[in-house]
Design brief:
By secondary structure, the chain is of the alpha/beta class. Helix content is about 50%, strand content about 15%. The strands form 3 sheets. The protein has a 5-stranded mixed barrel. It has a 5-stranded parallel beta sheet with strand order 7-6-8-9-10, with helices on both faces. Strands 12-11-13-14 form a 4-stranded antiparallel beta sheet. Strand 13 and strand 14 form a beta hairpin. Helix 4 runs parallel beside helix 8 and helix 5 runs parallel beside helix 6. The longest helix is centred in the last third of the chain and has 90 residues. The chain is flat and about 180 Å long. It starts with 16 loop residues before the first helix and ends in a 17-residue tail after the last strand.
Length: about 500
């Protein structure tokens, strides 16, 4: 039975794991250096490093795919889960996980159907965020002073726009050159829209009142840059009103839904941006003529109304006739009335003069003189009383002045006493501090170790340091004792002789 099995080859080479992984890597990269793979994208991962990790799959198999950061920025189509694409790249292996993977350099949608499906999916997602709502769209200015145009500077589109603006109503135009197709299209268009919005009002570069994003017609792939999410969001965030004029009338991109107004062609965008100057002037002239006619008709109507009201008013002479007649009547009666008044007053004076006699006048004068004398006496009494009260107040003030002088004298005495105390205070303070210092010095001498030495004690020093234990005394080479009347050296320890080193061949006893 053993003959049915092959015997193991003991001479086979033993590979290391790295050698085997490297050999597999060389085989796969050599056989599949450049491949195109059609499949559906699944499990897209975008880490902070900027690389793209995703899967390419069909109904039976899955291949891991990677697009490095530098190449991911240049992809014409961003991979999204569910897209059917054709990926171009090279096969390689990842020895760290024992798997093979596709390094993708380019991604293309697998047909127009896939592009339309992806476009519809993106449109629904952006519409759900409210970017296409009609409520957020702004009205276009009637006559913008500055128009910003985002387009290619070398195409026929910009010439058509400038020519149409020149024919209708010349305006100041700012052109932001961008790529209108290819991998750089979306980023440049979005940057241009945001750049125009970032211009400050009143700065050296005038801020546009209206923006036009324009491009000529083309295929769905050519217009794909205007379907990118970054462009749609920039158009929706634009504070400046924006007209989208991408492609021909039948072409529709996502920027058309986010813009404030969609024009079927770039030329139509220019026509929508400004009115026809001649027609505007004609309309202004017509309205000026209509205004003149209205003003003239108003004057005529008001003049007729004034005449109608004037006929209802009475004549001026009619208003003054009654007053003139009344004036004439009173003027005729005035002379007679004055004569009668003078005669009546003269008769009254004659009647009253009969009762006026000299004795009555003398009595009247005497009574007036008595009243005057009484008032003079009352005045003298009041004056005298006022003088007495003033003298009393003056005497009180003099008493108050003498009291103030006494207070000043007492204050001077107190000030002199304080000055004497102030002059004596430093000497007293210095004497007290001197006595305190002498007391402290006596206490220092009493508590000092010299006084202790005088009572029979001694200070032992070893090698210059104070010895406080037996062990320290045994280790010291020189001992010194200090008494209250001097120091005594007690002597040093004898040095131990060194042992000679043992000689070879002899036993060290």
């Amino acid at each position: 039975m053993m003959d049915l099995f092959e015997a193991p080859d003991d001479n086979a080479h033993d590979f290391t794991v790295s050698e085997l992984s490297g050999a597999v890597k060389r085989v796969i990269e050599g056989e599949f250096g450049q491949v195109r793979v059609r499949g559906e994208i699944g499990r897209v991962s975008r880490p902070a490093s900027g690389h793209l990790y995703y899967d390419l799959k069909d109904d039976r198999s899955v291949i891991a795919a990677i697009t490095w950061k530098g190449q991911a920025a240049r992809l014409a189509v961003r991979p999204e889960e569910g897209m059917e694409v054709i990926a171009t790249g090279r096969m390689t292996t990842f020895p760290g996980q024992s798997k093979y993977q596709l390094i993708v350099d380019d991604i293309r949608p697998a047909g127009a159907g896939a592009l339309m499906a992806m476009l519809e999916k993106r449109r629904k997602a952006l519409a759900a965020e409210g970017l296409f709502d009609a409520a957020r769209k702004r009205p276009l200015p009637a006559l913008p002073g500055v128009i910003g145009v985002v387009t290619s500077p070398s195409g026929a589109v910009i010439r058509d726009i400038l020519h149409r603006l020149r024919d209708r109503f010349p305006r100041h135009v700012l052109i932001w050159p961008v790529a209108v197709q290819g991998e750089r299209c979306a980023a440049e268009v979005a940057a241009a829209i945001r750049g125009f919005n970032a211009l400050p009002a009143g700065g050296p570069i005038p801020r546009p009142d209206l923006l036009i994003v324009a491009r000529g017609g083309g295929s769905l792939e050519d217009l794909w840059g205007f379907n990118e999410e970054i462009v749609v969001r920039a158009a929706a965030e634009s504070v400046i009103p924006l007209i989208s004029a991408v492609g021909h009338e039948t072409d529709t991109t996502l920027i058309d839904h986010a813009a404030d107004h969609r024009a079927p062609t770039p030329t139509a965008a220019a026509e929508r941006a400004v009115p026809v100057r001649v027609e505007l002037l004609a309309a202004v002239d017509a309205r000026a003529a209509s205004l003149s006619r209205c003003v003239a008709a108003g004057f005529v109507n008001r003049a007729q109304r004034l005449r109608d009201l004037a006929r209802a008013l009475p004549r001026p002479e009619t208003l003054t006739q009654t007053a003139a007649q009344r004036h004439d009547l009173w003027a005729g009666r005035l002379d007679g009335a004055l004569g009668v008044g003078v005669s009546a007053r003269r008769a009254r004076l004659t009647e009253l003069s009969v009762h006026l006699r000299p004795r009555l006048l003398a009595d009247l004068a005497a009574r007036g003189r008595e009243r005057l004398d009484g008032r003079l006496r009352a005045l003298e009494t009041c004056t005298r009383r006022g003088q007495e009260r003033a003298r009393e107040r003056l005497a009180a003030q003099r008493l108050t002045l003498r009291g103030t002088e006494r207070e000043i004298a007492r204050g001077r005495q107190a000030l002199s006493a304080l000055e004497a105390r102030l002059n004596a205070a430093p000497a007293l303070r210095l004497r007290a501090l001197s006595e305190r210092l002498e007391g402290v010095d006596r206490l220092r001498q009493t508590l000092g170790y010299h006084e202790t030495l005088a009572r029979g004690y001694a200070v032992i020093r070893g090698d210059g340091e104070v010895v406080t234990s037996r062990a320290a005394a045994e280790q010291a080479q020189v001992l010194e004792a200090q008494f209250h009347d001097g120091r005594v050296v007690l002597g040093g320890k004898p040095k131990r002789p060194r042992r000679p080193p043992p000689q070879q061949g002899l036993l060290d006893l």
